[in-house]
Fold:
Amino acid sequence: MAMPDTFDLAAWTTRAAALRIETGLFIDGDYRAGVLGQGFEALNPANGSVVANMACGTAQDIDLAVASAKAAWDDGRWRRMAPRARMAIFRRFADLVEEHAADLALLECLSMGKPITDALTIDLPEVVVTLRYFGECIDKVAGSVTTSPHEAVQIISREPLGVVGAISSWNYPLLMATWKVAPALAAGNCVVLKPAQQAPLSCLKLAELFVAAGGPDGVFNVVNGRGQDAGKALALHQDVAKISFTGSTAVGKQLMIYAGESNLKRVSLETGGKSPQIFMRDLADLDTAVDRAIGGIYDNAGQVCNAGSRLLVHADIHDAFVERFSQRTGQLYSAGDPLDPSTSLGPMVSRAQQRDVLGWIAKGKAEGAHLAFGGEAVADRPDGAYVAPTLFTGVTPGMEIAREEIFGPVAVVLPFKTEAEAIALANDSIYGLAASVWTSDLNCAHRMIKALESGVVWVNCFGDGDMTQPFGGYKQSGNTRDKSMECLAGYMQSKAAWLSLV
Structure:
């Protein structure tokens, strides 16, 4: 999706002012108010203004949404539909998302501060690709007939789970929701989505477009609300067969407890990260490596689960790397109005997130790390929740800023002298979501791939891939994989049937 040639800040501002924003809960194919009439303000983190007053779903609304999904599951209006018919709906669904891309991008921009250029040229194309990929998978799921005794036949089939509860994150509101909803629906399940309270706007529109594409009522429901209320109710619900979650490690652990306290529902988690980017002294092009390193931590204002926040740099190139990194960051990332197509750095999602990130920066200073640049709120954007791109050098592995996920535009540099030391530093973490290695030595690259405790390893790049690539982590970064056929299988279960031939 290309940026419209005539759209500048004024044009996007005008379009945003005229945008229709739905504020209700989307249950059984239509919008409605919450049972208790509660609400919350959706705030624009770029300027603190109120975007909309949203209905705030509670446990009672979760009950209604799950009941709607369960009714759709029981009567088979979706799972028993012919595969090619469901594929046709998915195709129309993807087409409608593409047609409404500009408005969906605006909803992302207004609710969590994502720069409009990023929303329209990065996030929305990936949403469309996700829908088309999983739509094409629908009639590709196959069972098997195993080798069995002559007097019997064994058939192993794949079936959907039932009602899937999805709890998505605010950093990529629409994309992270689609990574869950698309495979769940493609597998034949019905879905109740609880989007992040900070950024629910685009997820409501997504459900509306599914119904407009021909998706049956009740198959895809969305309940805005607070995690401690609506999210908890969804995770504890006896009629929910699976919870799929993207967010913090602490909340992921709590969801596993809720599953045990209820019906032993499956729990798929994609949680925290503290991803290392490793730069060997023989890397081919320092300028390219530095630019990709900068993007690896400052894209989306550092609000990325797999952000490459730990820069492990060989001692021989450390000074040159830091000098180049410091020069290029200011050239590549500048804070501005997210509606301005030239803006490359948006705000934190909220004032609370801004305070949290600034608190981590203060802690890094107190720990004795050297603040190379940044380290403060953006002075000329006082009404917004902005944090300037920040780099710490002189960091040691034991410092909290080198170990804890900050979820903001804060990078730390740790020097190393040997390959073994780089591996040890990279793996010295409770997380294992992603990693990258920059080297010209093919043998070193292969050794690193095998040695790194990470679900994804990039070599001479960062963040590259497509829908065939499983995405997920080791250790406390989660227990699942998004994207790919592996993800689709996670929304299904196997059934073995033994036929005795008499």
User: Anything to note?
Assistant: The CA atoms of residues 84 and 139 lie 7 Å apart.
